[in-house]
Design goal:
Elements: E1 4-9, H1 13-16, E2 25-27, H2 29-37, H3 39-47, H4 56-71, H5 81-98, H6 111-131, E3 141-150, E4 154-165, E5 171-177, H7 183-205, E6 211-216, E7 221-225, H8 229-252
Parallel strand pairs: 2-4, 5-6
Antiparallel strand pairs: 1-3, 3-4, 4-5, 6-7
Helix pairs in contact: 2-3, 2-7, 4-5, 4-6, 5-6, 7-8
The structure holds iron/sulfur cluster.
Length: about 300
């Protein structure tokens, strides 16, 4: 099993990913977690590519991530709660311009609904300031696309919220969680995502991240985890096995539903046999170019954002 760096940049995925010729497929932590959670959910999202209307929770997660990213553009001394609050409305305007479907979350003229929404984003930012002081941090990377090739032919990649590098070279991967869903329903998925990033960093930089950090903004809580190389090696095998299972399921066109508490956040219940629905015919063209999957976040509240 070999691995090699492919890209480590803040460019858009379409522009940035130049995969070596042996690569046959790519897998993001969100898509891998989908398959682990429910194979049919993976199919709906990655093969049928069914659209999902953004929910207010997802939009709030996207907004808070955008504000936290921009916050670090400011000089250290200016990264105050007030500055973060001042970024909320302009960042929302920017997001709506870039993703016009977000505007549909609020009926025309519903200024009170929008104001409530923006206030709820500001409240999550207060949770952030309760656990970190950004004036004391200089992140090495933010919203960075990282990737590596494992097993010679599988490109694994994802977006880090933030990477901190200590003077001694130690890496800390930081992920902001903004969802209001019960944490226990999503914690395993969140940790899976962080180990995925840790594996990419280990394979591309030769350093096992010292800390994988989840920042739960709603609860103003920090959850730290320290992986080791043996664990990441096992995790790599898990990811490759997962991909093989996805390939097998694709070949057999057999993606079964696996109901769980996460069904409450699934957009596709109407098409799911577990809820009396019927999936659409399996697409004849297959999943398409595996290297063109979309930006992975947000997908489900508390899971990917
Ligand atoms: S409703 Fe539940 S079982 Fe059905 S596809 Fe969605 S997550 Fe899977």
């Amino acid at each position: 099993m070999t691995a090699e760096p492919v890209i480590d940049t803040q460019e858009s995925p379409a522009a940035a990913v130049v995969a070596p010729p042996t690569v046959r497929a790519s897998l993001s932590p969100s898509r891998a977690a989908d398959f682990k959670t429910c194979p049919l959910l993976y199919r709906f999202r990655s093969i049928d590519r069914l659209p999902e209307r953004p929910t207010p929770e997802q939009a709030r997660g996207t907004l808070v991530h955008a504000v936290l990213e921009r916050l670090f553009d400011l000089p250290a001394a200016a990264r105050t709660p007030q500055s973060a609050g001042d970024l909320v409305a302009p960042q929302w305007d920017r997001l709506v311009t870039e993703q016009p479907e977000l505007a549909a979350l609020f009926a025309e003229g519903d200024t009170a609904g929008l104001a409530d929404f923006l206030r709820s984003a500001a409240a999550l930012l207060e949770g952030y300031f309760a656990v970190e002081d950004p004036r004391r941090l200089e992140p090495a990377e933010r919203e960075a696309l990282i990737s590596a090739v494992v097993d010679d032919e599988l490109l694994i990649r994802g977006y880090l919220d933030r990477l901190d590098v200590a003077p001694d070279g130690a890496l800390r991967v930081v992920d902001y969680k903004t969802g209001g869903a019960p944490r226990e329903a999503f914690e395993a998925r969140a940790l899976f995502q962080l180990k995925f990033y840790a594996l990419v960093l280990w394979r591309t930089r030769g350093v096992v991240p010292r800390v994988l950090r989840l920042l739960y903004l709603k609860d103003a809580e920090v959850c730290d985890y320290s992986p080791d190389a043996d664990e990441l090696l096992r995790f790599e095998r898990t990811v490759v096995a997962l991909w093989q299972a996805i390939e097998q399921a694709t070949e057999r066109q057999d993606f079964r539903p696996r109901p769980s508490r996460l069904c409450d956040w699934c957009s596709h219940q109407a098409l799911c046999p577990s809820f009396g629905g019927t999936p659409p015919p399996f697409p004849a063209t297959g999943p398409g170019d595996p290297l063109t999957d979309a930006r992975s976040r947000p997908i489900a509240p508390g899971a990917d954002e």
